[in-house]
Design a protein that fits this description.
about 325 residues, alpha+beta, Nuclear Transport Factor 2, Chain: A, four-stranded antiparallel sheet, three-stranded antiparallel sheet, about 20% strand
């Protein structure tokens, strides 16, 4: 039979009666006035009892002072074992700890703060810095190695056959230098650059903040694609985004979607002109037949022209 089954769950009488000793220990750990009423006494084992007291300290709602007392075998004196503040079933607890990388939100960084990125960050991918590539004129570069090998073969040939060699034009510059210049022009000469995943994540975030579905864009007179305050971006982002340069606009200095819009549109105050009807055209070069015949009843002459008629009276 194990020792756990032999322990008595009934609190020891002397330990259970040591309420005053437990209260003094709790008040010494805290200070008088914050230790409340005695709640319960729980047996922790043979001659070991824990007394629970209410905690009246502000900010610790539902917490309890737990004081454990014990008594040696055949001893009549109860001694103090431990004093600790423990949460109860309805205690006010702090939220579960979250790593800073998951807790950080946009706008949390302040002056002097550093935000390191992980080595396997999906938003980034390796760039081309050229640091691990030897210079084009270095003896370790592939171009120089090839030129040295060719020069060595040519020198052996000249020495063996006693041939006079006319110096020719200088060799072309290595192509590796052009790769570096192209990489620098494209903005690739960095340790890491934005990956396709990072580009899509940023585009979704910008579209959600300053996109066509925002209330401001829904009420705008026109979209940013026709606004004079829009500063286009470079690269593939220029097809969908730009930077607002209107100091009075709600998105000044922010990346906005081309379908976004606001009341600060550069052409918002230009009212369209009302349509002007065209002047009637009178054809003066065509003759309309107008037959004249006397009207027997009224003695007037009837003039028929097309679908209408007019009576000319006599004086």
């Amino acid at each position: 039979m194990s020792a756990a089954t032999t322990r008595s769950r009934t609190p020891d009488r002397l330990c259970a009666e040591a309420v005053d000793l437990a209260r003094e220990a709790a008040e010494e750990a805290a200070y008088p006035g914050v230790v409340g009423e005695h709640v319960s006494a729980v047996s922790e084992g043979d001659r070991v009892v824990t007394h629970f007291f209410e905690c009246k300290e502000p900010g610790y709602r539902g917490w309890r002072w737990a004081v454990t007392v014990a008594r040696a075998s055949r001893a009549k004196f109860v001694t103090l074992s431990e004093t600790v503040l423990l949460p109860g079933t309805d205690a006010l607890l702090a939220p579960e700890w979250v790593p800073w990388s998951e807790r950080l939100r946009p706008g949390d960084m302040g002056p002097g703060d550093l935000l390191p990125t992980e080595a396997d960050d999906l938003r980034l991918e390796p760039g081309f810095t050229g640091e691990d590539v030897p210079p084009p004129n270095s003896a370790l570069s592939e171009e120089m190695a090839e030129r040295v090998a060719v020069s060595g073969e040519l020198a052996d040939l000249v020495e063996a056959e006693d041939v006079e060699v006319t110096p020719g034009p200088p060799a072309a510059l290595p192509l590796r230098g052009s790769i570096v210049s192209v990489a620098e022009e494209l903005g690739m000469r960095r340790a890491r650059v934005l990956s396709r995943y990072g580009l899509h994540v940023a585009a979704d975030r910008w579209e959600e903040s300053f996109g066509a579905k925002t209330p401001m864009a829904q009420a705008a007179p026109a979209s940013c694609v026709s606004c004079g305050f829009l500063v286009p971006l470079a690269g593939s982002l220029k097809q969908a985004f730009g930077v607002c340069a209107n100091e009075f606009g709600p998105a000044d200095g922010h990346v906005v979607s081309l379908s976004y819009g606001c009341g600060g549109h550069s052409e918002a105050a230009v009212m369209p002109k009302p349509p002007v009807p065209s002047r009637p055209v009178i054809d003066e070069f065509q003759v309309d037949p107008m037959p004249l015949r006397p009207d027997a009843d009224s003695g007037s002459v009837s003039v028929n022209a097309g679908s209408g008629s007019e009576d000319l009276g006599h004086s």
